[in-house]
Amino acid sequence: MSTTQRLWRWRSNPLRRREDVVEAWIVLVVWVLAVAGGALAGLVTARAAEDEYAEQRAHRHAVRAVLVSDAPRDLTVDGSPDGRVQGSVRWAAPDGTSRTGHTLVDGGLKAGARLTVWLDDRGRLVLSQPPGRVRSDVEAALFGAAAVLAVAVPVFGAGAVARAQLDRRRMAHWDQEWGLVGPRWGPKT
C-alpha cells in the first residue's frame, strides 16, 4: 500500500467526509499514545524493577543457620508449592548473640541440619535469597513488557470504540443519502 493510499484522509478530496478526518486524527492520536506512552511506562517500570532487585541484592545477606526441629514432609501444612515448609532455625547475629526464627526450609530435613538463610540489614529473616543479576534482568524486562501492554491495550481499545462509533455514524449518513438517491434510480426489486 503506497503512502498516498494510507494518507488519503489527510488530502483534500471532495469525497472526504468529516468523519474521515476525525478518524484520521483518532488513528494518529492512538498510535502516538500507545507507542510513546507504552514505551515510557515500560522503561519506567523496568527501571523501577531493576532498582528494587539491586536494592535487594545490596541489603540481603546470607547467614549459616541450624535447623532447630525436624521439618515436616507434609506439604499441606504451611507448605509452599516448591516443597519448602516452615521450619525453626537458629543463627548467630553479627553482634554474636543467638537468634531464632521461622523461615521456609526444604521438607524432611532433620534437626541440626545446616542451611543458609537470608537476613535483611536489620537482622530479620527474609523468605528468599535476592534474585541473581540475570534473573532480575529478565523479570524487569517482563514487568516492562507488561506495563507496555497495560498502556497500549486500553488505548487501542478506546480507539477501536471511537472508530466503531464513527462507522455507525457513517452508515446512518449513508442510509439517509440512499433514502434520497435510491428512489431516483428506478423501481425497487
UniProtKB/TrEMBL annotation:
InterPro entries: MT1774/Rv1733c-like. The chain crosses the membrane at residues 21-44, 140-162. Keywords: Membrane, Transmembrane, Transmembrane helix. This is Uncharacterized protein. The lineage of its organism: Bacteria, Bacillati, Actinomycetota, Actinomycetes, Kitasatosporales.
